[in-house]
Design a protein that fits this description.
Chain A is mainly α and 287 residues long. Chain A is 75% helix and 3% strand. The longest helix of chain A is centred in the first third of the chain and has 30 residues. Chain A starts with a helix and ends in a 9-residue tail after the last helix. The radius of gyration of chain C is 19 Å and the shape is globular. Classes of the chains: A mainly alpha (287), B alpha/beta (249), C mainly alpha (283). Chains A and C meet through helix 4, helix 9 and helix 11 of A and helix 4, helix 9 and helix 11 of C.
Chain lengths: 287, 249, 283
């Protein structure tokens, strides 16, 4: 029974990781930038979700607004911060991204206060009684369900639409894609829009699970998402999804069994280092 | 046999594809062996086996009778190999002179710990200047690599490899990307190095220059050796002609 | 006067710490996002020893040793993974360090170690020691940069594969860079512990690792003089901005971002370009 509960917990957490890490891996695949500030968009999504829900009373509407707004912010970050740095050594963009992330955390703190905010009345508070006292919160069902639906839609679009194909071509071989008339610039904008919107949705979902958003809610997510995309094999989407789920489950079990030795967040990195020493290119990375 | 390099029955498979199968040849002191073959013949793969970047599934590479199979690339270089790569890779942040001088200083860089006690670079720079002069780059000594055309950098690669004073010089398509005049000039240089006693393995796609300067040829097609011997005899073999000119001829 | 002494000591420790990272990231091109872990290793080693009544000066070489051994292990990982993978691996090592420290009562757990005894050198004596060590390491750095070791380091930073093709054992050089850099960070950590007299897991987290990397990059990666200047500047900046306490981190990160965005080669690069512009305008 405990095993099953831990497994479910792991999958819920893994779904959140997947939504966050996917945007990060998309950015890496296209631009080779470790986009730490991505986690700030996750936080921003959480804030917008809570505020708009409190004002309008509709969670669905709030999630929609969060995705669109944060998507646009993501595009602006690309245009203003990363595009001018593309020809610099990669650590320049990395440091710029970290600076941006710290600055955003500070802005959240100054703008919305250091103690965080909650839903006026928390939506989706109930739970489903499956069997023999085994419960699944509605919010948890929503997290798993939305992740599956969103990721399936994206997978479908990337294979079956013109823009999806253009996007995949740009990731595999930018110069070839350009030769075939793909507008790389538009692909990059779209990439940032979608990746950021996914992070925003993840933010809204986490806000729902915890009924709480705070300025630093992105910190752990940020570094862990980096670990995940490296674990998956940088820029490898299937690897990223696999790593997200694995990490979610490993954390859930690890906290119980070896939590007294190292804390939960360090667990992810311990796992990361072990995997990289065995497979330097990540789980599904190609050498 | 006191051959310098012995390539024995090398086989390399990538996944299910056999890239090189049963490659075998020797290089004796003073040889200039041309290693030719059409695109996809497995030339680069075999070169990588010799330098240790690719591990062969079967066979051996020996340098002066010493099996190299457990050696890393830098250890192989220390045994007496030197490589000028197909894709030129200058160290971008230093002048041509320092690119070559670094290679001249192998005595000083051999022990990582001791290297901190050596400061003087003048002897190595002097030697580097001579080498750059020899490959015709005297006037470009102090230029940064990013400011120079490919032809210069190809010559720098050769000078840098020579700086290691190798027993065997490996040249991986040194003429690729050069125009006819540049190619001829560099081929002449390779020949004169050989005349001065340098043993060379020349991997090349430019058949015309290879035929002009190489007395010995080794030919590979689809990963299989199809001919090995004096250039004139090799070119009489029908398989070689077919590989290059197509079966129709 | 007491304030100035504290300030100078803080600056000296920051310079030593930043130069220790420069050895690895600036000279040898191995970006590390977990360097604070080595500061922490030195700090905990030294603090636990002096609390057990071992004289402070004896703890310095021991701190260098423990941090250097840990650095050797992390250096070994750099032989397996490179570039972005290495950056994230070192970041992971930093998180692992904090994560382990936090759960162990031996290290004071979440609360950390307080009441670290004084060094017995006096405030001025301690400041002088810090300054002397920082200056000595700056000199050592300049000396190494001009040596054949420095020559090989810059070659590895430029292109490791080519370095190997030149017959150079790049792995040995990388390990040396890691060991020297991390052992020095360990010494800086010992000084840090006895300067603040209190250490906790949060003193050596990701933010510290990034701050020190920022010092190196803002100074101009590889430039000893630039880094000495930027380490001094960035370590006093939070103090200078004390009057706008609430906004100091925002300002700090905004400056860091602006630096990367408009002068990625740091203050050293900025100075060189300004100098060229000025002399060019005169000519």
């Amino acid at each position: 029974m405990l095993y099953l509960e831990l497994l479910i917990q792991g999958i819920v957490q893994g779904s959140i990781y997947a939504l966050i890490a996917l945007g990060l891996t998309l950015v890496y695949g296209l631009l080779r930038i470790l986009h730490v500030a991505h986690a700030a968009l996750f936080t921003l999504g959480g804030y917008i979700g809570v505020i708009v829900t409190n004002q309008s009373g509709s969670l669905v509407f709030a999630m929609f607004v969060a995705a669109i707004l944060v998507g646009l912010v993501g595009m602006a970050i690309y245009k203003l911060a990363y595009e001018p740095l593309l020809n610099q050594p990669p650590f320049i963009a990395l440091i710029a991204s970290i600076a941006l992330f710290i600055a955003s955390e500070e802005l959240f703190r100054i703008g919305f206060g250091p103690y965080g905010i909650s839903y006026a009345s928390q939506p989706l508070t109930g739970h489903l009684e499956l069997f023999a006292g085994f419960r699944l919160k509605y919010a948890e069902i929503l997290v798993i369900g939305m992740s599956i639906i969103i990721l399936s839609i994206l997978a479908y679009l990337s294979v079956n639409t013109r823009i999806g194909v253009a996007w995949r071509a740009s990731v595999t071989d930018p110069s070839m894609a350009r030769a075939f008339g793909v507008n790389i610039q538009n692909v990059r904008y779209m990439n940032f829009f979608i990746g950021s919107a996914l992070a925003a949705i993840a933010g809204v979902l986490v806000a729902l699970l915890n009924n709480f958003v705070e300025p630093t809610m992105g910190s752990v997510a940020s570094y862990k998402a980096l670990a995940i995309i490296v674990l998956g094999g940088l820029g490898n989407i299937r690897g990223t999804l696999l790593a997200s789920m694995l990490l979610g489950v490993i954390e859930a079990f690890g906290t119980i069994y070896i939590g007294h030795l190292i804390d939960r967040d360090a667990l992810a990195f311990g796992f990361l280092i072990i995997v990289l020493m065995i497979r330097p290119q990540g789980l599904l990375g190609v050498k | 046999m006191n051959n310098i390099l012995e390539v024995g029955d090398i086989t390399v498979k990538f996944g299910g594809v056999t890239a090189v199968s049963g490659a075998t040849f020797d290089i004796n002191p003073g040889d200039l062996l041309g290693f030719i073959g059409p695109n996809g013949a497995g030339k680069t793969t075999l070169m990588r086996v010799i330098t240790g970047i690719v591990k062969p599934d079967d066979g051996h590479v020996k340098l002066e009778g010493q099996d190299l199979s457990t050696y890393s690339i830098n250890e192989r270089i220390n045994c007496g190999l030197a490589l000028a790569q197909q894709i030129v890779q200058p160290l971008q942040e230093m002048s041509l002179l320092d690119n070559v001088a670094l290679a001249c200083g192998s005595a000083k860089t051999k022990s990582a710990l001791k290297s901190m006690f050596y400061h003087d670079r003048s002897a190595e720079r002097q030697r580097a200047r001579e080498l750059l002069d020899m490959v015709g780059l005297k006037e470009a000594c102090n230029a940064m690599p990013s400011t120079l055309p490919l032809g210069y950098l190809k010559r720098m690669e050769v000078a840098r490899a020579l700086a290691l004073e190798p027993k065997l010089l490996l040249l991986d398509e040194p003429l690729a990307g050069l125009n006819q005049n540049e190619a001829k000039g560099l081929a002449d240089l390779i020949q004169s190095l050989n005349d001065n006693g340098q043993t060379i393995l020349l991997i090349e796609h430019n058949l015309r220059e290879v035929m002009r300067i190489c007395p010995l040829l080794y030919v590979q097609d689809n990963g299989r050796p199809i001919a090995y011997g004096p250039a004139k005899e090799v070119m009489q073999i029908s398989d070689v002609r077919n590989a290059y000119l197509g079966k129709a001829n | 006067m007491a304030y100035e002494i504290t300030l100078m000591t803080t600056i000296a420790i920051s310079i030593l710490f930043a130069l220790s990272l420069n050895f690895i990231s600036g000279f040898c091109g191995q970006i590390s996002l977990g360097h604070a872990a080595f500061l922490g290793t030195g700090a905990y080693t030294s603090a636990l020893m002096t609390k057990a009544s071992i004289p402070f000066l004896i703890t310095l070489p021991v701190s260098a040793l423990t941090a250097g051994i840990l650095g050797f292990v992390i250096g070994l990982t750099s032989l397996r993974v490179r570039h972005d993978f290495l950056a994230i691996t070192t970041m992971g090592a930093g998180f692992l360090f904090v994560g382990i420290i936090r759960q162990q009562d031996f290290f004071g757990g979440e609360i950390g170690i307080s009441g670290i005894p004084a060094t017995g050198l006096g405030r001025i004596g301690f400041m002088s020691l810090c300054l002397a060590l920082a200056a000595a390491f700056a000199l050592f750095s300049i000396l190494i940069r001009g040596s054949w070791m420095g020559f090989v380091f810059s070659s590895i930073a430029d292109n490791e594969d080519v370095t190997r093709i030149l017959g150079i054992n790049a792995s040995a050089y990388k390990l040396i860079a890691f060991v020297i850099g991390t052992a020095t960070a360990g010494v800086a950590g010992a000084l840090y512990a006895h300067h603040f007299r209190f250490i906790g897991p949060d003193s050596f987290g990701f933010v510290e690792s990034i701050s020190v990397l920022a010092m190196v990059i803002v100074g101009g990666i590889g430039s000893v003089a630039g880094i000495v200047f930027s380490a001094a500047l960035l370590s006093v900046m939070p103090l200078l901005f004390q009057f706008i306490d609430d906004y100091k981190l925002l300002l700090y990160s905004a400056l860091l971002f602006a630096m990367m965005r408009f002068s990625p080669d740091g203050l050293a690069g900025l100075c060189v370009r300004t100098y060229r512009k000025l002399t060019g305008a005169r000519a």
